[in-house]
Design goal:
This protein has 2 domains: 91 residues, Cytochrome C biogenesis protein (Helicase, Ruva Protein, domain 3), CATH 1.10.8.640; 55 residues. It has 158 residues and is mostly helical. Helices cover 65% and strands 0% of the residues. It is built from 6 helices and no strands.
Length: 158
C-alpha cells in the first residue's frame, strides 16, 4: 500500500527539466571573448528586447549552450550566426542585414520623421494663411470698417 502511494505521488510530480544557467568556462581567453561577443549580439527569441547574455529564459540558455559548443568546436563566428539565422530568421540578430524584407525596418523611422515634418509644415502654412485672410481687408472692407469705427466714436461723444 505504501509502495503504491509512493509510486502515485512520484508519477504525479512534474519532472520538468530546467536549463541550468551556469557560467561557461574556457581555457582560451580568445574563445571566451568570442563567445561573449556572440551572445551579446544575438537576440533572445523569448524576451525579444534582451540579448542572450541578459536573458534568463530557458531557450536563451539552450542557445547559449549551442553557441558554446560551436565555439569550442572551432566554428567561426560567421558560421555560428549563419546557423542561427537559418534556424530562427533575421529576427535573432540585433542588427539585421539590409535586404528587401528589412528595408522598412531600417528606413521606416526616417520615413515617419519626414512625413511628420511635411505635415507640420503644411499645418503651419495653413494656419498662417488663415490668419492672413482675417487681417488683410480689401478697400471696400477697409472703408466699411472705418465708417463703423467713426459711427461708434460719434455715438460715444454725444
Amino acid at each position: 500500500m505504501i509502495k503504491t502511494a509512493l509510486i502515485i505521488v512520484l508519477m504525479s510530480l512534474n519532472f520538468t527539466a530546467y536549463a541550468a544557467d551556469n557560467p561557461v568556462e574556457f581555457s582560451n581567453p580568445e574563445l571566451q571573448e568570442r563567445y561573449y561577443a556572440l551572445i551579446d549580439e544575438i537576440r533572445c527569441l523569448v524576451c525579444q528586447n534582451q540579448s542572450l547574455a541578459d536573458s534568463h529564459a530557458d531557450l536563451a540558455q539552450d542557445l547559449r549552450n549551442e553557441i558554446y559548443q560551436k565555439v569550442l568546436a572551432g566554428e567561426k563566428d560567421e558560421q555560428i550566426v549563419t546557423f542561427l539565422v537559418e534556424r530562427y530568421g533575421d529576427f535573432v540578430l540585433y542588427r539585421p542585414p539590409l535586404t528587401k524584407n528589412t528595408w522598412l525596418l531600417w528606413f521606416g523611422p526616417f520615413l515617419f520623421l519626414l512625413l511628420g515634418i511635411y505635415v507640420a509644415i503644411r499645418l503651419i502654412k495653413k494656419q498662417s494663411a488663415e490668419k492672413n485672410a482675417f487681417t488683410e481687408l480689401d478697400e471696400t472692407q477697409q472703408k466699411r470698417l472705418t465708417e463703423l469705427l467713426n459711427e461708434d466714436t460719434d455715438r460715444n461723444k454725444g
